[in-house]
Records
---
Amino acid sequence: MTTNTSKSFNGVLKRARGLPIHALVSATYYHCIALFLKRGEDTLKWENDAVSRFVPKVMIMLGNREAAARNLCRPVQINRTEFSCYDDKNIAYCVLLTDDQCSCSCHSMILYHVPCAHMIASLASIRCSYEPLISDFYTISSYKNTYSGSFHGIPDSTG
Ligand SMILES: [Zn+2]
């Protein structure tokens, strides 16, 4: 969806550009190790802080969406599982909340696996939490598993 990952990786390679291939691969390898160590340390800090079971970046995103949800008009409940939610430009969004499907016509849930402001407002109108809708991909334990891989030193090929 974005080129952020490739741009980030390009930033790593920018410093190694012009090096022989062995040095280029080594620089990339050791950069990955440093990244995994840093993110592993971040995970330990988040676990010790015990603020949330989700990573801080998602908590910030959800805070912004909660604020946006508070600025929406009160959603209109169409039936037991459907809501119409209007934004400040009077654009209607259809929110569907069933046991097996939670969606919104803004498609944010499909793209990010995090409830949008329309879903948060709809759930708030029936006094339900949106937290069960947040993907487990964003939990600190998933993040920890992602960066739990181990690396090993590479012996010098000339020795
Ligand atoms: Zn939406």
---
Amino acid sequence: MANQPKYAGREARQKLGWWYANRFLFWRRLTQLSILAMFLSGPYFGFWILKGNYSGSLLLDLIPLSDPLIVAESLATGYIPNTTTLLGVAIVIIFYAILGSKIFCGWVCPLNLVTDSAAWLRRKLGIRQTAKIPRTLRYAILLMILIGSAITGFLLWEWINPVSAFGRALIYGLSSTTWLILSVFLFDLFIVEHGWCGHICPIGATYGVIGSKSLLRIKVIDKNKCDNCMDCYNICPEPQVLRAPLHGKKDESQFVLSKDCISCGRCIDVCAEKVFIFSNRFNHSGE
Ligand code: SF4
Ligand code: SF4
């Protein structure tokens, strides 16, 4: 966005207190770090809560969890994964399809720590210039990966997947792919605002498609209270999703229904006028 204030959320902090203005950020960080701790409990303490990595894991030695994009790539190559992997991907798809829009991106993905740090530093340094690339690029990349995997017979994305590289780096220590993580950070900091998650990442695109009809949604409870401070637009990693419910036509839905919303709750945190809440998409009270 063109005129970014450095302190989106300051008014909410002053008016409603630090906890109100940061509570969803706090819960997200706690969730992200708890999941990381579940991976680390095995290697460090011999008690395996999550065995594996962010691409494929076993919860409590019982419940398989598989990355939908890797499974889709495998299927595209013509390889049918084993039953455990297929069960794992079914569990993941059902969970995220029902729960909320791109919950994986906002609450689970380890790379969110990197991209949020870049966005925070960008705001602090007042970096305003941003290269323009379409947000639909991630869906084109997703399609290209699947077609490319089908043609070559390789899991193409896994050669450069910075999400699993960062997950491995956090769990097993820095590796030769650590440069990928630094590249994502620098790309988001200097080249494109919210560049990686908001424009490039095909894993996020996959979860966007999976969660497009999910239940948990951001709801605008009273847009007349909005004083157009723009803090929500400035903090939101996908600000285009706010336009319809907040500044759209009269008959526009009160919900953020876009599949690109990552359900991070930061718009709720930073809004001093308490315009937003988390709700389910069928709760039409107040309309
Ligand atoms: S909803 Fe309105 S008042 Fe609340 S943060 Fe967004 S622009 Fe500001
Ligand atoms: S609309 Fe709110 S919950 Fe959705 S991505 Fe933006 S800040 Fe996060």
